[in-house]
Amino acid sequence: MIAIVDYGVGNLFSLESSFNAIGQDVRVTSNPDDLRKSERIILPGVGAFGDAAKKLFSSGLAEPLIDEAHKGKNILGICLGMQLLFTKSYEFGEFDGLNLIPGSVRAISEVIPEGLKIPQMGWNSLKFTNNSQIFSRSHEGEHVYFVHSYSAFCPEEFITATTNYGADLTAAVQNKNVYGVQFHPEKSGNVGLEMLKAFCEV
Amino acid sequence: MITKRIIPCLDVRNGRVVKGVNFQGLNDVNSPVELAKFYSDNGADELVFYDITASSDGRKIFTDILRETARNVFIPLTVGGGISSVKDFERVLSCGADKVSVNTGAISNPSLIPEAAKLYGSQCVVISADVKRVNGNFHVFARGGRDDTGIEAIGWIRKCVENGAGEVVLNSIDTDGVKRGFDLEMLKAVCEVVSVPVIASGGAGSIQDFITLFHEIPRVDAGLAASIFHFGEVAIRDLKAEMFKQNIPVRL
To answer: Is B252 within the bounds of a domain?
Structure first.
């Protein structure tokens, strides 16, 4: 069973549907036991980092999530869920994340040229920078759907794909069994579904 | 590079797509779910579902359709029509909508956009403005383009964005249905005052109209159309191939 962590941010219907579409047994859950029993864990998220981190830590779900990650379970953070995997975020303040990948989350406005719209909203292509099993079914240059104003900044060894929006932004990361994608695979058509399949095959 | 988006719009009444649809190979061309799947498989970057039902029974059918679509289609889905409260946001978001567009609801309830943006984030609040020239000025129209509100459109759209709308759909009533191209003058006026994505709507009659749109106004992010896609007059694959040829960033 794949557990989708429900800690009260955003709607998880599409994400759940995407795993159903690739024939996976999936459960949207806020029960810590489900996280422990699951084969894999998906950490979703939309909205602001501070709010989401507060909800995640107070939900009692952060602890089992971190434990399972340390035990080697495969975990995939999506969008804000990916950002939560990092050490810190500087979105409207300074907030601690799960610290499963060393690095911080900062505004894309720090690195992209002026005049570009923020958030980056729409389909952009991927450039692979390190091998990652999540891309075992993918091809460089494929487009995926992004909606974000903040991005992860971390050592290059953890970055598995970037996307160019006036500057190269972190699109996907991996630290051993902990994976993250800034884009929405559940909204990226067949290209996205193939990535979810690949994650389920890891 | 981020690509320009091509967006078919489906008007849904009592669970059926209205405006005639003419596709070979679809069993039920008026089924929103079938049509959404077809577009998703054939290059659409996003879909807009517009609920033009008036009754509460119709609303229920619409949300069922929406849920069924979100179970089967994995590209972004914007939903509009009859959105007048944050409860309506909740209703469609829980059925798999990614963005919600407000039109008349934002005129009658000025707090709707800020409230929804606070609850769900700006990225999911879309202001859809029906705009028409009246004595040389751009006016916002309500109730599906029937009522002139007298509100000056460009300033109003800017205010909606300042209040939290994360995207603008600009629907020109003047060019809608005319099929001689998008309303470039109106679009330029809006693009000058907002820094969020702008979707052009109303007037597309050919592939060239989209090429002209993206060449003339680089700040426009997407082109939306209904009948030319439904009738098969423009195939999205052909449109995108031409965009690629003309050096317009596009997802093939």
So the answer is: no
